[in-house]
Structures are given as C-alpha cells and as structure tokens.
Write a structure and sequence with these properties.
Blueprint: H1 2-19, H2 25-37, E1 41-48, E2 51-59, H3 64-73, H4 80-87, E3 95-96, H5 107-115, E4 119-129, E5 132-141, H6 149-172, H7 178-188, H8 197-207, H9 212-219, H10 223-237, H11 242-253
Antiparallel strand pairs: 1-2, 1-5, 3-4, 4-5
Helix pairs in contact: 1-2, 1-6, 2-6, 8-9, 8-10, 9-10
Length: about 260
C-alpha cells in the first residue's frame, strides 16, 4: 500500500517537477492542487533572516497580489505560523502547519486577509532550505467553501513533496533576494563603496529592518560598536538619519541597469 501511495504522489506531481524553473510553473502548481483538493489560490513566501518576500501567487483571489505585498512587507510578523516555523527551523523535514482557525489571527489581520480576500479556509506547509524557509499556503474562497476532511488529508499527503518541489523552483528562479541586492548595491555603487566592510554590514541590516540590538547580536559585536559603526557610516554618507539612508538606497535601486 505504501509503495502504491508513493507512486501515486510521484505521478500527480510529475508535471510540477518538469516545470521547475519555467514560467508555466505557477499554473502547473495550481492545476495540480486544484485537481487534488479544489484549491482556489496559492501563495508562497520565503522567510530569510528578518525579511519576507512573496515568491509566487496564483489563483482566484482578485486582490492576491496586494495581499502578498502586504504580508511580505509587514503582516508576516503577525502570522502565528511565522513563530511556529522559526521554532521548527531544525526540523529537517517539511512542516505541516496547524489546521486553519480564524481565531488564530488578530482582528486587523483577519479583516484584511480573510474577509477582504473572501478566504474561508487554508492549508499550509513549509520547508527550510539552509537559511531560507519556503512557506506554502493553499486557500479556499467563499464560493468554494471549506476543505473537506478528505481534501485536507490529500494536501497533507502531498505536502512533503510539494514543499520540496516549490522550494526548488523558487531557487531555480533566483527570486530577487533583498539581502543579495543590497550586497551588490554596497559593493558597486557610490557613495556606499566608500564604507568599510563593517560599516556596510551595519547599514545593510538597517535597510533590512534590523534594530541596533539585533544588528549587534547578528554581527557578534557590542551595542556600543554597532552605534559607532552606524555613526561613522552616516558621517561618510553625509546623512544623519535612517530615512536618509533609505532615500539613498531607493534612489540607486531605481536606476535602470546599464546596457552592455
């Protein structure tokens, strides 16, 4: 029985494997989970450090792109599943999240994501790959109703392989990584190239949303040193505030790439 079930999962997910790294992957993913459990919408987020980004969104939720942006910019910290994923970082295997319940979420979160998005149910799984967590969410909308027990069980059965395949696709796609973008920015663009290595480390983390204590902890330096590096960097850049640092970075990132 186990071998037959494994073969069934492999055959169901084979089209997704073949679509890894291809523009067709989101549609193939949706077709696969829709056939398995009548999923209405899929969203995939990547957590790395203290940042989140929406890697993939496809389905029947009209405001899906807006919800993905809002979640990755701010609301991920209010998602109770986020803390669960951080606690299971060393699990070494895909994680199936607790069954959805609206009571898990704050009123603001519930209004924005579930009421405005007309979401009535969701199933979620995740997988850690090195320092990145790929978080898969499968939604049902009002016109579809909630997942049946059989559909929930089917998604749970597919979850381990689904998570691994989606993570591989996101890696193949080289999803824009804010940290890598900032590293390139500081290595190649004035005025950031004038900073020392440690001053760049501090400024990049400020731009990634880290507080001074978090910066000191991650870099293994004292709080006083973190303040000192920030002060020196600001002096070299001719600025006096975090907002001015953001302004420089945004201006440089908005420039078109040079043609070669």
């Amino acid at each position: 029985m186990a071998d037959r079930r494994h073969g069934d999962v492999a055959s169901v997910l084979a089209p997704m494997v073949l679509a890894i790294g291809q523009p067709s992957f989101p549609k193939v993913l949706l077709d696969t989970v829709r056939a398995a459990a009548n999923v209405g919408h899929c969203m995939v987020f990547a957590f790395e450090g203290q940042a989140a980004q929406c890697c993939l969104g496809v389905g029947n939720i009209g405001i899906g792109p807006d919800l993905g942006a809002a979640y990755s910019e701010h609301f991920y910290v209010a998602d109770p599943n986020h803390d669960t994923l951080l606690r299971h970082r060393s699990a070494g295997r895909p994680i199936v999240l607790p069954k959805f319940s609206p009571r898990m979420y704050s009123d603001t979160y519930r209004k924005l994501f579930f009421e405005d998005g007309e979401i009535v149910d969701k199933s979620a799984t995740a997988i850690w790959v090195d320092d990145t967590c790929f978080y898969l969410n499968f939604y049902r909308t009002i016109d579809q109703g909630q997942f049946t027990p059989a559909e929930t069980a089917r998604l749970a059965e597919l979850a381990p392989a689904l998570a691994a395949i989606v993570a591989r696709h996101c890696q193949e796609q080289d999803v824009p990584d804010a940290r890598k973008q900032l590293e390139r920015l500081f290595a190649t663009h004035a005025p950031f190239v004038t900073l020392t290595s440690r001053e760049k480390d501090v400024c990049r983390r400020i731009l990634s949303g880290y507080g001074t204590e978090a910066i000191a902890s991650e870099l293994g330096i004292s709080l006083h040193s973190a303040f000192t590096y920030r002060k020196r960097a600001y002096e070299k850049l001719g600025i006096s505030s975090q907002n001015e640092l953001f302004a420089i970075a945004l201006r440089l990132m908005a420039r078109p790439r040079s043609a070669h």
